[in-house]
Amino acid sequence: MAVSDRELEERIRALLDARADSASICPSDVARAVAPDDWRPLMEPVREAARRLADAGEVEVTRKGAVVDPRSARGPIRIRWARTD
C-alpha cells in the first residue's frame, strides 16, 4: 500500500484537530487510521512525517511528557501541537 508523505502529515493534523488542544497522539494512531489491517509497516513513515511537521514548527514530539528531538528519540513517542507557552 503506497501512502504519500502528504497523506500522513494530513492524517496527523486531522487526528490532532479531533482532540483537545493539549492532547497528544501516538504514531500508531495515525498508522491504524490509514491502514487498519496493515498498519505496522507505516510506523517509520509516520515518525518521519512527525519529524517534518516538527521541523516546520507545527508539532512537538514528546517522550514521557517531555519534548524531545524527533531525530534522536528512541522508543515510544507522542505527537502534539506545538505549544507557544
From TrEMBL:
This is DUF3253 domain-containing protein. It comes from Rhodococcus jostii. It comes from the Bacteria.
